[in-house]
Amino acid sequence: MKLATCRLNDKERVAIVHHGDTSLFDIAAASSRAGNANPAFNSMIALIDGGEAALDQARALFERYGRDADLSTAVSNAEILAPLPEPRQMRDGMSFPLHIRQSPRGQLKLKARAEGNKAELARLEAEPLPELPEIYRKQPIYYITNRFSVKGTNTTVKWPRYSNVMDYELEFGVVTKGKGANISAAKARDHIFGYTIFNDFSARDAQRVEMEGRLGPAKGKSFDGGNVLGPWIVTPDEIGDPYKLNMEVRVNGEVRSKGVSDGMLFSFEEIIQHVTQDETLMPGEFIGSGTVGNGCGLELGWFLEHGDEIELEVQNIGVLKNRVERQDG
């Protein structure tokens, strides 16, 4: 299933996305029609907490009432929210080798430009990429970001006033299910509720300063609306092989880069194993893959401008679309 959170008639609803991603089936309304209103359909977190029984009931309701026109709404007529508007936790990784190898040089180039150091910029341009630091092969690396600053597709991301360098990041990630600790990689798939797209908007100049302090990122990532998820969550049975998905970035309709989700240093299952060492994983957490190679302006030397529209597309999931705007004052 593809599952969305949307606002219909001023109410937040959980819906099944159908008819080629053009229609939203209101699960809670269908449950009421069946004479058995289920609180598991009141929110995405409630649905995740409801476990397999709730998902099975949602499938059965769609099978029974999916042709009832009054239970579905066109996607174009609804406000699509982040599929998980308030994750219980948000972790974001560093999983793709090319991104890891290119990003430090991108940060140094950004610093050289800011200082007007043309000689240093030329040196960096000519320098070959470094080898992957061994630490990234030893264990999954991730940070925890602000779970309260999540927005969805078709929203405008307000450029933080303290930043002059705004960037996008093409990622995908998993939403977890089932509480557990010390989960083995072999069992971790049982804790994946579904997959979604993540645009990890970044204030690169703020992030550069933080990373020089060897702690963070903080304000380089955490600003209102800067964590964008969507457009929906796709359950594992419909995603295919999550490590073979084609990915693409478009800015103002023009392709900026392409990638594929293979080559992750650690799979999501291995990341879950690492995260849950003597730590309890909660249902409804989000774990990001990290940026795919060439999936951000930092790597390409091509950052965002006021009014840019960014589309991130991931095969078998959909398109996550946002606009960035500077703020006055």
TrEMBL record:
Residues 137-324 form the Fumarylacetoacetase-like C-terminal domain. One of its GO terms (molecular function) is catalytic activity. Pfam families: FAA_hydrolase. InterPro entries: Fumarylacetoacetase-like_C, Fumarylacetoacetase_C_sf. It comes from the Bacteria. This is Fumarylacetoacetase-like C-terminal domain-containing protein. It comes from Afipia broomeae ATCC 49717.
